[in-house]
Design goal:
Elements (H helix, E strand, L loop, with lengths): L6 H7 L26 H8 L14 H14 L3 E5 L2 H12 L5 E5 L4 H13 L3 E5 L15 E7 L1 E2 L4 E2 L2 H11 L3 E4 L4 H4 L9 E5 L13 E5 L12 H4 L10 H5 L3 H14 L5 H12 L1 H20 L4 E5 L9 H7 L7 E6 L3 H10 L4 E2 L9 E3 L11 H6 L6 E5 L5 H14 L1
Parallel strand pairs: 2-3, 2-4, 4-7, 7-8, 12-13
Antiparallel strand pairs: 1-9, 5-6, 8-9, 10-11, 11-14, 13-14
Bound molecules: pyridoxal-5'-phosphate.
């Protein structure tokens, strides 16, 4: 038996091989919209899902396929579908699971963009979101009824950087016979592999740590292959005959990767948010160094969090790597390699000091993103959350004194020196 390759080996090699016609070692950018059929019979079998192959880049592309196979391997799923962005991944998952009038339960602590997508755009489709508190997974029970189709959480939650007890939430989902969807963007599979903890579906914004260089948008849906879509009849897209595919039932034909097939041949086909081959190539290149970068991100963040916690102008630091943090034991159990690189801290002086700090930082970039090689900072109260009332800001973890940072992979002494000079001015 050859040995099972390790995570760093998979991050470089999974899904890829030298190009069969040219010998190119790096995965080529297949910058094409369409693919020539061998003959009409071949065309017919591709369109009927009788054979697997390239038809049109809205649905699949060879550069994208390498990215998909690599992410499925790193997350230990059965298959994956790469799409245009993290939000597109969320849209396509729910498109496969929900009908008008259905609902899902989502963690209250989520990326702000996801809160918007779920509260407003999804409501227009007749999909209702119900907000739950992941600190008390048992409280999800009361939110679930016969029209609830899924639970959605982040493994490492924005903006405070808190680990969530995935097993505990998975137990609730299993008890109700619904799938658990985990957004693993902030942790990445280097720190946490949600499927090992009971998740059925994993989604990512590849825009963040996985691409890792702040230059390309992307998203992915990873099928865990764990959920029985035929059991309840509540997921007709997977368990009922598809007229356009000759009456095929996706779950019968494709078994433990039926969800990935539905996302591709119904979601991507009809809604259309495909990833460009160029972005798939950029993200594949980033992915090769994910283990190295993620370890450095976490090591730097740990040092920065300890330094901030001892600073006289800092009131509090929310970072699971600090022994005093309420989330510390979950981090030790769930993510022993590191505690992530995105977290918040509070200044003793409020709003004005927050503005002076973000404006005084020089190495840090003041912007609305995370998971770049560069260190990033935002003062949510004066930026992403400025339209909210003071009370809403506080509830969202964006009080006037709150600063969120995404610690980069520069020399940590330079990161700390920049914070020090800016705090002195604030
Ligand atoms: C950025 C982000 C998203 C959305 O991804 P996009 O690629 O920006 O569409 C979703 N979830 C989390 C946790 C994110 O950080």
């Amino acid at each position: 038996m050859p040995r099972e390759p390790g995570f760093s080996t998979l991050a470089i090699h999974a899904g890829a091989q030298p190009d069969l016609t040219t010998g190119a070692r790096a995965t080529p950018i297949y910058q094409t919209t369409s693919y020539v059929f061998e003959n009409s019979e071949h065309a017919a079998s591709l369109f009927g899902l009788k054979a697997f192959g390239n038809i049109y880049t809205r649905i699949m592309n060879p550069t994208q396929a390498v990215l998909e196979e690599r992410l499925a391997a790193l997350e230990q799923g059965t298959a994956a579908v790469a799409v245009a962005s993290g939000h597109a991944a969320q849209l396509l998952v729910f498109h496969a699971l929900m009908r008008p009038g259905d609902n899902f339960v989502a963690a209250r602590r989520l990326y702000g963009g996801s809160i918007n997508q779920f509260s407003h755009s999804f409501r227009n489709f007749g999909w209702e979101v119900r907000w739950g508190n992941t600190d008390e997974p048992e409280s999800f029970d009361a939110l679930i009824d016969e029209r609830t189709r899924a639970i959605f959480i982040e493994s490492l939650a924005n903006p405070g950087g808190n680990f969530v007890d995935i097993e505990a939430v998975s137990n609730v989902a299993q008890r109700h016979g619904i799938p658990l969807i985990v957004d693993n963007t902030l942790a990445t599979p280097y720190l946490v592999r949600p499927i090992e903890h009971g998740a059925d579906i994993v989604i990512h914004s590849l825009t963040k740590f996985i691409g890792g260089h702040g230059n390309s948008m992307g998203g992915v849906v990873v099928d865990g292959g764990t959920f029985d879509w035929s059991k309840s009849g509540n997921y007709p897209m997977l368990s009922e005959a598809r007229p356009e595919y000759g009456g095929m039932v996706l779950h019968e034909t494709f078994g433990n990767f039926a969800l990935a097939i539905a996302v591709r041949v119904l979601g991507l086909r009809d809604l259309g948010p495909s990833i460009s081959p160029f972005n798939a190539f950029m993200i594949l290149t980033g992915l090769e160094t994910l283990p190295l970068r993620m370890q450095r991100h976490c090591d730097n963040a740990m040092k920065v969090a300890h330094w901030l916690a001892a600073h006289p102008k800092v009131a509090w630091v929310s970072y699971p790597g600090l022994p005093s943090d309420a989330n510390h034991s979950l981090y030790r159990r769930h993510s022993p390699k590191g505690a992530g690189a995105v977290f918040t801290f509070g200044l003793k002086d409020g709003y004005e000091a927050g503005i002076r700090l973000v404006e005084g930082l020089a190495l840090f970039s003041h912007l609305a993103n995370i998971g770049d090689t560069r260190s990033l900072v935002i003062h949510p109260a004066s930026a992403t959350h400025r339209q909210l009332t003071d009370e809403q800001k506080r509830a969202a973890g964006a009080g006037s004194e709150v600063i969120r940072i995404s610690v980069g992979i520069e020399d940590v002494a330079d990161i700390i020196a920049d914070l020090e000079q800016a705090l002195n001015k604030a």
